Amino acid sequence: xxxxxxxxxxxxxxxxxxxxxxxxxxxxxxxxxxxxxxxxxxxxxxxxxxxxxxxxxxxxxxxxxxxxxxxxxxxxxxxxxxxxxxxxxxxxxxxxxxxxxxxxxxxxxxxxxxxxxxxxxxxxxxxxxxxxxxxxxxxxxxxxxxxxxxxxxxxxxxxxxxxxxxxxxxxxxxxxxxxxxxxxxxxxxxxxxxxxxxxxxxxxxxxxxxxxxxxxxxxxxxxxxxxxxxxxxxxxxxxxxxxxxxxxxxxxxxxxxxxxxxxxxxxxxxxxxxxxxxxxxxxxxxxxxxxxxxxxxxxxxxxxxxxxxxxxxxxxxxxxxxxxxxxxxxxxxxxxxxxxxxxxxxxxxxxxxxxxxxxxxxxxxxxxxxxxxxxxxxxxxxxxxxxxxxxxxxxxxxxxxxxxxxxxxxxxxxxxxxxxxxxxxxxxxxxxxxxxxxxxxxxxx
Length: 445
Description:
The protein is an alpha+beta fold. It is built from 19 helices and ten strands. It has helices at about 1-10, 65-75, 110-115, 120-145, 200-205, 210-215, 220-235, 255-260, 270-275, 285-295, 300-315, 320-335, 345-350, 355-360, 365-370, 375-385, 385-390, 395-405, 415-430, and strands spanning about 20-25, 35-40, 45-55, 85-90, 95-105, 105-110, 145-150, 155-160, 165, 175. The protein starts with a helix and ends in a 17-residue tail after the last helix.
């Protein structure tokens, strides 16, 4: 880390020297005064996100909360919180101070939703999965860490390439101080950064005594209600009164939405209860991903039943989420042995929806590893479906890593494997790098 800091701090003129990341195009929007740009690592060209904030000087009131946000993001670790990689400050000309924060690659939720173009049931299923993830992050902050985010809303959520939702924008985040309800002064030191449209009644009135007496999740429960409104209304919240318009909210989410936005802080719904009890989360997409996340805890009968149904199920789920989220999860399960032969059928079915290049990069590496398996059921399934992926093998990869394992099938004790191995050569033979034949000696004596 010290080496990184020395490399990025510029000269007296305030330039960025030897920053090990290239800053790309900015996204259209970000939270607060931050700018969110695409970026890449100069070391291996891997993608990242780079957030930057520029203060006019050391006395700029926004500088302290920005530093708070960086510190909090660095120290709070959770699967549904944006993953921090690096940060640094650079002093520029005229005393300007710029903070750079490097994170895993993400894009703003609003932009990703627009790009995906989901509608109707598929949109609601994806929103349910995303809200489930954000609610878990908020519950972790509130119930486990006794922290208050303070500004949960659409712009505080970003999306990974695997289409997972991550919570960030921690500038306002602070410890919940419920032990001293009569204390003067705000509990959230930087509450002035929060837009008035996102503030509950007690927050808008700066009634800190009431806030301290309320449950630690009360402010962020309200924020989850604001996020839900912005998602389903497809617009940024303009004023608090707009939250009363419940027409866009799905009927099976409406009771929870109303409890999150209760006028009485003590009656608001704990995010943990939202996760556990909401009917809105009971859908095929959420249940499928949740099953995959705890696959190691399932017995073989449950796994086989799940994977036999998955081939049909993936046809009903949003195609983008199937390919970017579920396909990699099934690939990982096959590679590490937590899934058996029945998982190959849906895996190859999903792989057939990829382009040829994507098939080679996302499916073939798993297939190569599976050819080394001693499980006859897996070997048989691979050979029976060779027509779905055989042409995607680069010749050298096939020759060096696949054919030595495949060739053992010619002498296997199982007649079925011998037959399937022989039939597979109809597809693979043209791609195998056969040894060059010696030329005949034509020398005339």
